[in-house]
Amino acid sequence: MKQITVKSKVNAPVGKVWNLWSTPEHIVKWNTPAEDWHTTRAENDLRSGGKFLSRMEAKDGSFGFDFAGTYNEVIPNKHIAYTITDGRKVTVDFQEENNETLIETVFEAENQNSLEQQRDGWQAIMDNFKKYAEKHLV
């Protein structure tokens, strides 16, 4: 199975980035690839064996889906590994350097969309997170 990598550098310390990345009240605000989409609901039990769910929908109501899975490994402020409900594996690594946090996500590609579409969609969500995080530092 092919793997795709997306990255972003967020101008914020890892503790704040981790909190914004993993808290449902924040997830619903940044977890979208485009302006015409939104996440209407998020649940997150961030621990090994814990489950997560994000309900993503087109704002015009034409389409929606649940992005869900189970965490395999969680190392706070460093590493998340999970399996999506379709069986694909994903890792997310957080590395802080000079008060900036590099986030790297590696995921197994699916067969319905081109590799470019998948990479662009996941990168768009990552870019949206960066904008949100840098604007909403608490």
TrEMBL record:
This is SRPBCC family protein. Residues 11-134 form the Activator of Hsp90 ATPase homologue 1/2-like C-terminal domain. It comes from Galbibacter pacificus. Signal peptide: none annotated. InterPro entries: ASHA1/2-like_C (IPR013538), START-like_dom_sf (IPR023393). It comes from the Bacteria. Belongs to the AHA1 family.
